[in-house]
Design brief:
Largest sheet: 4 strands, mixed
CATH topology: Immunoglobulin-like
Strand content: 35-45%
Number of strands: 8
Distance between the termini: 10 Å
Shape: globular
Number of helices: 1
Low-confidence stretches: none
Oligomer: single chain
Radius of gyration: 14 Å
CATH class: Mainly Beta
Strand order of the largest sheet: 2-1-7-8
Mean pLDDT: 97
């Protein structure tokens, strides 16, 4: 169970290998960094779940995906400032005994997400 993420680059049709992501626990306007990581070749955290069952607690969280830096590293010419720079997804964990999967599908101009399984 726990918390996981997966990022797909819809511009190139591949996992977003090399994208930097940060996980924060939030409380109101305050955000506390839990971990920062770089996605592996599958577009996932190389260490597995972001939080395991024992660590996951009900509350609010943020995943910050460094989209512009990723696309620039892939050689995509972006305007300055880019349309999307860091995509912040704020979400809540209501049931720590369930698995929460937060995928991101992104291009330099759009993104979508959902609660996955």
């Amino acid at each position: 169970m726990g918390l996981s993420t997966h990022v797909l680059d819809t511009m190139h049709g591949t996992p977003a290998a090399g994208m930097t992501v940060a996980l924060y626990q939030t409380q109101g306007e305050r955000a506390t960094l839990v971990k920062r990581f770089t996605l592996n070749v599958d577009g996932r955290n190389p260490d597995g779940p972001l939080m395991d069952d024992a660590s996951l607690r009900p509350g609010t969280y943020r995943l910050a995906f460094e989209v512009a830096a990723y696309f620039r590293a892939r050689g995509v010419a972006l305007p300055q400032p880019p349309f999307l720079d860091v995509v912040n997804l704020d979400f809540g964990i209501a049931h720590a005994d369930q698995h929460y999967h937060v995928p991101l599908l992104c291009s330099p101009w759009s993104y979508s997400t959902y609660r996955g399984s």
